[in-house]
Amino acid sequence: MTHTVDATQELAAFLRTRRESLDPRDFGLPARRQARRTPGLRREEVAELAGVSIDYIVRLEQARGLRPSVDVLEALAQALRLAPAERAYLFDLTRQRPRTTDRPATTAAPPLARLVTDLSPLPAMLMNHRFDILAWNGEMASLLLDFDTLPPSQRNAMWLCLMHPEIREFYVDRERVVREGISHLRAAWAAHPEDQDLIERITEFTKGNEEFARLWAERDVKTPGRGSKAMRRADVGAISVHFEILVPLHDTDQRLMICRAADDESQSAMDRLYARRRGTPHGAADPAR
């Protein structure tokens, strides 16, 4: 089983799943005498909305080798009411957007590594598009776990959420966290078709984790830049955090994640974690590792 991007097949599946997810009532379409045999909009309805022929939609959804123009892609995105991340995914699949030839980041850019440290006492870490964790500060290690104790292959936010026995149980709304992570990975997968390491990661997760395989097949595409996560730890209790993800202009493959407590009770719990860590060696706070 391989997850190398077959753009034609993926485009067909993506268009079909987006069409089937739409509610005809949202488009003010007239009621039909016969019940709809398939969910969502019919192909002829999408064709009319996009201003293309029904045969063109059929050929696209059957992966028959079409390469839509930018104008057609814009029309399809509007007809299917794609969100910004979904629209970007559509353009990536058809190779209509300029893409960088830079190799994916595997180490933290030194200025960003220093910034991660300087952000203390806010928990912060640096990742690449694969969710590989490239740098972290002591507060983030306290909040999640001591990344320095893990082999490099396991310093990956998605791997930890899916596979690590302790982290798996942290999140109160675990499926939402996993779903959001997968939707980001799908966008990254289309934007970086040459990234063999990412392809191998996705293959590993799909083969080894039923939950990932199920959610991956839904083809959700999002690139969340901020949000909230609720955790429950046996040692300090409930912790809710708000997070922000920033992309540096000079290192666009690196993503800086910054967290802060969502309420006073969460801050108190985090302070207890930090105090406990200050009594131990601070090795994992070294972001250059």
UniProtKB/TrEMBL annotation:
SMART domains in the cross-refs: HTH_XRE (SM00530)
Gene3D superfamilies, A to Z: 3.30.450.180, lambda repressor-like DNA-binding domains (1.10.260.40)
The species this protein was found in: Streptomyces aurantiacus
Domain named HTH cro/C1-type: residues: 33-87
Recorded superkingdom: Bacteria
Gene Ontology molecular function, alphabetical: DNA binding
Name this polypeptide is given: Transcriptional regulator
One family name in Pfam for this protein: HTH_31
Signal peptide: none
Lineage: Bacteria, Bacillati, Actinomycetota, Actinomycetes, Kitasatosporales
